[in-house]
Amino acid sequence: MPERLIPIQGDITKLQVEAIVNAANNSLLGGGGVDGAIHRAAGSELLQECRQLNGCATGEAKITKGYKLPAKWVIHTVGPVWKGGNQGEDNLLASCYLHSLALAEEHNIKTIAFPAISTGVYGFPIERATKIAVTQVNKFLQSHNSPKQVLFVCFSQDAYLMYQQLLKDLLKS
Ligand code: ADP
């Protein structure tokens, strides 16, 4: 099981996986951070397709093609804005991972890469977000054969080390 969960450090727009996940906003019309990087790398056709989707609720996910990205698909999910932790943020973040994985399975996607959703501009504390990410993905994979492999893509070394540690802890338990 744990070898299906892989932390890596790098730029998600460069990855040769079947699907990458975008930490989008409710409009799905692009933004800063990883969202901006994905739209820049995919080209303007991505925005055109996103315009047809009528946005996305927080905690939900929608899928588009990847256009100029190496990835064939982009799964756009909208993480919660951190408001102190008592506004359902944990459940909404968990829901982002689960809905993205369910969409991936539906499309027969075998390899998928997630960024650290909500941990940038949306301000979710990184350790708390990482625990939710690894726990939810692990839980999903235990009861589903697909996707085969899930990459956690960390932009910073701090985030990478945290994913490594939490995945190791998960392995022990
Ligand atoms: P959110 O609005 O959900 O917080 P951000 O894009 O601000 O989204 O940040 C989410 C995470 O994505 C942050 O941890 C940030 O460091 C990371 N990130 C930003 N650009 C990239 C990229 N090109 N590849 C992978 N991760 C990235």
TrEMBL record:
Short name of one Pfam family: Macro
Identify the residues that the record assigns to the Macro domain, covering every copy: 1-171
InterPro entries xrefs: Macro_dom, Macro_dom-like
User: Which Gene3D superfamilies does the UniProt entry name for this protein?
Assistant: Leucine Aminopeptidase, subunit E, domain 1 (3.40.220.10)
Q: Which GO terms describe its molecular function?
A: deacetylase activity
What CDD domains does the database record attribute to this sequence? Macro_OAADPr_deacetylase
| Coiled coil ranges | none
Q: Which PANTHER family match?
A: GANGLIOSIDE INDUCED DIFFERENTIATION ASSOCIATED PROTEIN 2-RELATED, MACRO DOMAIN-CONTAINING PROTEIN
Record-given protein name: O-acetyl-ADP-ribose deacetylase
Q: Which organism is it from?
A: Anabaena sphaerica FACHB-251
Q: What is the lineage of its organism?
A: Bacteria, Bacillati, Cyanobacteriota, Cyanophyceae, Nostocales
